[in-house]
Amino acid sequence: MKKFFLLIAIGNCFAFFAVYPVSAIASEPIILVLGDDWDKRSIARNSQAFERVLGGISNWLIQRRIRVLDEPMVPQGRSIHQRVRRTKENTLEVAQEFRTPVIDAVVVLKIFPEIDTVAGETLLNALIVGNITNVSTGSLIGNVEVRLPEYLPVEKSCVVHRDCVIAAIGDQAQNLGQKVGEVLMKYFNRAMVVGRPSLSEANTSSEEPALLRVYKLTFDRFDPPEYHIAEKFIVAFSGYHRHEILLNMMRRVEISYETRSGDAMLKRSLRMVMVNMGIDASVRCIKHTCIISKN
Questions:
Q1: Among 31, 125, 25, which residue's Cα sits nearest to residue 71?
Q2: pLDDT at 34 over 70
Q3: Which of 32, 75, 83, 291 has the fewest CB atoms within 10 Å, counting from its CB?
Q4: What residues have CB less than 8 Å from 189, skipping those under 6 apart?
């Protein structure tokens, strides 16, 4: 009998979504840009030139709806003032320190001056190298290697003084910001895939693309038939990629849930499923961990 009523609930829920579609929520990625300057040939992170280049990158990305945080915003206790080598583990730890906003990707960059002499003329360029990592999955999104399209002529005396070289690179912040920004956007566009429409969005414009995120969802005090019905809904959510059961007990199920849905959209959809299944439950989320608990 209980299963019969649950089947009625799921039918009513599908009907509700069809009649009252949920509008899509924009999900532009939030990225953290960090410097890596352990190699003393690279430009120090605390130099004006480095900050100008990062500012150029940030401005270019912000104009294209990418939200950017950078080194000065690193939480207290994680900020490193001396030269530092950023390991993958270190960058993920720094990004995960942010309670709000939740960081989607972390970009780590190094800037190297390059000097050449051609026909007696002294020329300068800048090499920016680094990588992009998905904070939620820990997977590599891509590697960065960017130079200015042309070497810049400088006074021969300039290369003798490192401060002069660094200042000249800082003067190219806007050009370098555009070049690096273009590379980052190329990787983001590849990684951000529009989720397939769900029943809740069937009559609306499609949700905007988002980077893949991994959530831990816990269904607490759910009977097996209740969880199986809830599972039918979560695999139909927009942006669903895959899920895997981590723990399956009599009235508690924990799953790893991968999605390209926006964070707010996923959490709101979870709450709507509980309401329309007629289950009195609370949905509590901290970052990428949600506990759906029957009251």
A1: 31
A2: yes
A3: 75
A4: 209
